[in-house]
Specification:
The chain is of the alpha/beta class and 268 residues long. The protein folds into 2 domains: 6-200, Alpha-Beta Complex (2-enoyl-CoA Hydratase, Chain A, domain 1), CATH 3.90.226.10; 204-267, Lyase 2-enoyl-coa Hydratase, Chain  A, domain 2. Helix content is 50%, strand content 16%. It has a 6-stranded mixed sheet with strand order 1-2-3-5-7-10, with helices on both faces. The protein is globular.
Length: 268
Amino acid sequence: MTQELVQTERDGAVLIIKLSNPKSRNSLTLEMREALGAAVDLAAGDPGIRSVFLTGEGPTFCSGGDLHHLKTACDPWTVHRRFRSLSRWLMPLIGLDKPVVIGVNGHAVGGGMGLALTGDVIIAGEGAKFMAGFFRLGAIPDIATMYHLPRLIGMARTKNFLYSGGSFSAREAAELGLVSKVVSDADLYKEGLLEAKRLAEGPAEVMGLAKVIMARSFETSLQDMIAYEGFGQALAMSNPEFHEGLSAALERRPADFPGAAASAHAAR
């Protein structure tokens, strides 16, 4: 399936989502957001898709908001409606119950950095830069930046980064733990896809369940988190992926998690 602004392609159990508007530096136009929403719906609705690899085409991963649109669309109700529409694509992407790998090529600016931070695993090309950019416009950080960034690098570093209008190189982002791996720009697509395939071969449904529970950890008491773990474990251990993983461990053989999941879905 290919759309004008967002291309999607299946590679086995991986859905590749590529931002494909390099002329606008893959800015988050209204049309781009709608296309992203359709791609996320595809990933969520197909049980054969076990992981997602999201990257950008061209020298910029994503430049954030569409500045030309913002010039004429900054009255309160227009902004309010635009942010209500985030539930169409951003929340489903953040909460997607299967692993998401982000490959950051070039600059991730403002909301584009926020988009990059939605990934479970972020791989950056050596030329990548993560840039704040919000206060330069007189706007507050958005696209869940103020949710994810303090959790990833701490509140003090986040404030310093945002207030200074700073930028992180790929290496600096890796040192802070934002990025799991830095690779050559030429190898970014290959390495990102390999990581998505590796995750797709694992217990993807169970990893997705753990992801949903971990997202609540910073606002939840210890007692409630242990309760969530108990409820989650009851679900995990009823999943065919668990039975396959346990059998494989006892039989000392590699586990076939995708095969176990596919058999269970076929029987439903």
